[in-house]
Amino acid sequence: MSGYLVLSSTLAIFQIKFLHHPKLLSVLTNGIIAVSEPSVEDDYLGQFPLNFGGIAPFYADLDTTGGQGRVYYREDSSPDILQLAVNYIKRCFPESTFEPSSVVIVTWDSVAPYAGPGEDATLQAKRNTFQAVLASSDSSSYAIFLYPEDGLQFYSTHSKNDNELVPATVGFSQPATNYYLWIKPGLYKTIANEEETLNNLHRSSNLGKQGVWAFEIGGSDIILPTSESPVSVDYGDYDQFQEVTTEPPISHKDSIEISQPEVSYEIPSRGDNIQTSYSIPQPAAEDDFQSPYQTATEQPPPEPPLPTGKNPPLQFPAQQFPQQHGQIIDVEEVDETGIVFRYSTDVQQTCANNRHQCSVHAVCKDYPNGFCCSCITGYKGNGRQCVAEGSPQRVNGKVKGRIFVGNNPIPIVFENTDLHSYVVMNHGRAYTAISTIPETLGFSLLPLAPIGGVIGWMFAVEQQGYKNGFSITGGEFTRQAEVTFLNTNEKLTIKQKFSGIDEHGHLTIDTQLEGKVPEIPFGSSVHIEPYTELYHSSSSVITSSSTREYTVTEPERGGTSPTYTVPYQWRQTISFDECIYDDSHHPVSATQQLSVDSIFVLYNTDEQILRYAMSNSIGPIDGSGEGRSHNPCYTGTHGCDTNAVCRPGANNQFTCECSVGFRGDGRTCYDIDECSEQPTVCGSNANCNNQPGTFRCECLEGYQFSADGRTCVAVERVVNHCVTGTHNCDIPQRARCIYSGGSSYICACLTGFLGDGHSCIDIDECEQSRCHPDAFCYNTPGSFTCQCKAGYRGDGFQCVRGELEKTKCQREQEQFMAFGPRGPRPVGQFIPQCDVYGNYLPTQCHSSSGYCWCVDRDGNEIDGTRSGPGIQPPCIGTVAPPVVVGPSVKPDTIHLPPGTHLLIAQSGRIDHVPLEGNDMRKQDAKALLYVPDKVVIGVAYDCLEKMVYWTDISSPSISRASLGGGEPVAIIKTDLESPEGIALDYLGRTIFWTDSQLDRIEVARVDGTQRRILFDTDLVNPRAIVADPMRGNLYWTDWNREAPKIETSYMDGTNRRILVKDDLGLPNGLTFDTYSSLLCWVDNKTASVGMDRSIKLTILPYILLFFRHSALSFTKGLFVTYKDQIVLFHAGTKRLECMDPNQLGRRKILEGIQYPFSITSYGKNLFYTDWKRDAVVAVDRTVPEENDNFQPPKRTRIYGITTALAQCPQGHNYCSVNNGGCTHLCLATPGGRSCRCPDNTVGVDCTERN
């Protein structure tokens, strides 16, 4: 739906000539301000550019029905609002003389994304608030977009047509031009239309205030283009307009007509089919449009880099003014942002609801259109931040830089360097130290004393009627300075962010240096003469520029010390917020003079510390020195205590007065201990901490400061009730808890249940006749099953007369068991074994010889699996059990509670068992993921992104799912036969897996891309695999019956070697404990056969037959002589062992276990899965003994097991940062890494290197 706003004056936008309605705008619920007739919603949704003129601060399918947000809009000409608009526009366009007569303010407040029935409830719960302001004068127009400090909650909405997610768009679109036979689309500009750039809108800015963006959208003095192709001004970082070459749909003449504008108009509902009349404003001819961001002679710049967290989504050209002014400030750190233009609601911006924005040492005063803060007597500042007059100040911060020195082509890069400054306020003297500056750079930075000089400006001695930087800004501002060394034209950029006073009472600063400086030789000294600098103030912006010199004296050489002078130019812009409601907050003079003397610079090579010191005073312009006051308070010759303020009197008279929090005569001042003198000053819920000149109240644990900043109240913590289990949803078997932000959540019944989520009842599907008439229906909780009646076959939904068709296994079984034409079947004939569903059992055994082997789904023997008599190899079934007929459980993860868990894989599901210390909390074990048609074997956990990965051998694939909730995604589905073991390098973001059918080990990125085969030789039955990310090692087992082994290599596949091969049977499971550096495994070794090699395998059945009728038997084995040779059949033991891979010794942890398959470790415990017991068994490796076991409710084979750690182990490898500098796969090695290309990289630009 849309509402109309009739303006008091013409708004010049896009150079459109409004012939019929020059003062009419349409406000659309979908985040658009239309400047020409808008189409009906169905015609334009999901399209950009629009086929009508539109300004879009956040264009998407937005919903305002049912109270889901409101849209407010009005035209405002009040002085405070006009001034606020001018302040923002001049911050981005500092040379503009813009004076608007009115502004249009449109606010979309808590609007929801459109969501159709049955769509994601989590998305439906999200809300966005944003604002657009249009300001126009006789000659130009501007748009200001504002986004809240906590950002936007959603970036896309569902399409009504195909239910796809359509990203939102921020941008501008000119109306299309109708040429009767065809339509020429208008020019357009996209500011942001991807989640990454939309997510950066509130973090970045093109005018120095996070979340605020300004654009020029119209002007009468813009040069017309000489061609149809739009071009941009010469700003290398900026995008250009694009011309649409395809034809969008013809606009539908449909909108709403209202007769009177509203000061505030609420749009309560969506209007998709409203038919009313509207007089169409005629767009200009195509040549009448000219982007304000282009000239007629420049060429389009190259495409800008993709935005990141450090780059705004768009750096728009501020205006056509000389580049050296450098007025655009990129904000990178946290800055307070909000809906700064009030919209017409009942909330009035007054002291009553904004007192917390003022300092505790300030008073708040209401004005007709807002409020302002001002420091109380004895304190100085802007009201938001106040410090005691005369008290010394401390400034702390960080410095980072990337600086080229002289002709060196390699920059010197440093980060996280400390900056500390101490200011004697009543002398205006600032001491600044920057630590850990390398010697190759330290001397060359000596001339840059103004890095700390800005702190001197903040606390400069104020002459009467003038204000220093802190009195104006309160220590909250951004500064961008450009230094040009005139002899060599080298430039250095300084960006500084001052964030006010922290919780320790210190000012905070972040500094960034980038550019090039002349080289100053090691051991040189630098001298800077006193200088003056003019500071020009306008609304929220202060600028200054000056040219001065420094003198370098180099170390003595040949009895002389070379000396030379270098001129350099300083230009700086300081941006800050000021209260516009109280004119007394503005400096008396728009131009002030900063005088700097007693300048001292030093670089200490032993400590690598750079030191600056200088004295500062602020006063009138005084080029000749006449008229300047020589009062000792201004010259610093007063002799007052450092904790006192100097009060100037007549002529050269003055008095010294101790600062607030001190007592004395002013020449000597002592700290007052407020905590002792006022024991109850902090209240009963806080401790009092005395500090020089003040005291600090510290709330007790469980309390926090209330809005007044003084009273401690109980903490109301945000609780995710879905995680803590404190919600009131029905039990997890019937309902889901969906977290919706804050402490809120939504309850929703699971499929197969009916209710409000708090109480869900089972739906009896059998009452709905869901099964075939010739089938029985069995209702189950949340589902049902259908089974054909006797004499019928089918799946229960379709039943036909007749018996079920026999499987291949059943037919072969009947064939071998039947009597042939010559009589009964021969003795010793092999008969295949089938399961209850007619599938081949994965383990087949010869009943006469006792030999066993593994088979695939077609009954074919798998190479390397045949074992000796009485030994059953650990074969894995490749056929998934039949899925229960009826609605299946949704394949979705259940949110994992906090803490460390065991993840265990069973056929069709993954369960989790919480750990408390080293012990299993068995009563809290639950299903984590249902995949009923899969056979899950290996399982791995990504502690960084909280994802679970698993292998499936039924339909061979590798999949993953987020433990925060969500459906599983198959990341690898091709060129797999039997993927079993899986391991993950959470630092390098790669996965490794074994395939026992293809006999190979592969690696890929965690998203399944960039696959590469590591090994495909000397492997027979590779199964378990584990990674040691911090050391760059890989370990795996191969249970080849002829030569079982445990191997290792680096993660890049180099340095492959055998770790264990002797006294090994069927090494199934493997785990590596990062903290103890132990490699542990379970060996399913059950028997060994020792005999002379002359004994042929063909006679073994007869040997076994002999013992079947013999009385010879021994506890440890069976012995027999055959043709004077000794044959030993040894029973053996199944055991758990560990070793340090860097040493040769092995340690047996436990023997006599039953049928182990997989193993993991946590703390002092080892946990293995046992096929005989259908259980997870815990073993204390320090005792060693079994100390606990857990049997899941579903009694089936348990396959893989892993530990889901609450936090990743501390450490790194060379692939953990920037992918190790590799173009594709980065594979860690001990102390290094290798860059490798994926297989089949035809046409891919990939570089391999070590």
Can you describe what's shown?
By secondary structure, this protein is mainly β. Among the domains are: 206 residues, no CATH class; 223 residues, Green Fluorescent Protein, CATH 2.40.155; 41 residues, Laminin (Ribbon), CATH 2.10.25; 36 residues, Ribbon (Laminin), CATH 2.10.25; 47 residues, Thyroglobulin type-1 (Invariant Chain, Chain I); 273 residues, TolB, C-terminal domain (Neuraminidase), CATH 2.120.10.30. 6% of the residues lie in helices and 39% in strands. The strands form 23 sheets. It has an 11-stranded mixed β-barrel. Strands 52, 53, 54, 55, 56, 57 and 77 form a 7-stranded antiparallel β-sheet that branches. The protein has a 6-stranded antiparallel β-sheet with strand order 1-2-3-4-12-15. Strand 73 and strand 74 form a beta hairpin. About 15% of the residues have low confidence. It comes from Anolis carolinensis (Green anole). Sulfated glycoprotein widely distributed in basement membranes and tightly associated with laminin. Also binds to collagen IV and perlecan. It probably has a role in cell-extracellular matrix interactions.
In short:
With 1250 residues, the chain is mostly beta strands. The chain is globular.
Got a strand count? 79
What is the annotated CATH architecture of the domain at 901-1090 and 1132-1214?
6 Propeller
From the alpha carbons, calculate the radius of gyration and give it in angstroms: 39 Å
What amount of the residues lies in strands?
Answer: 35-45%
Number of helices: 13
Shape summary: globular
* Overall pLDDT: 78
What is the H level of CATH, i.e. the homologous superfamily of the domain at 901-1090 and 1132-1214?
TolB, C-terminal domain
What's the CATH class of the domain at 901-1090 and 1132-1214, please? Mainly Beta
Find the structural class using helix and strand composition. mainly beta
Strand order of the largest sheet: 21-22-23-33-32-29-30-31-25-26-27
Provide the CATH topology of the domain at 901-1090 and 1132-1214. Answer: Neuraminidase
LDL-receptor class B repeats: 946-988, 989-1031, 1032-1076
Domain NIDO: 57-220
Protein name: Nidogen-1
Function: Sulfated glycoprotein widely distributed in basement membranes and tightly associated with laminin. Also binds to collagen IV and perlecan. It probably has a role in cell-extracellular matrix interactions.
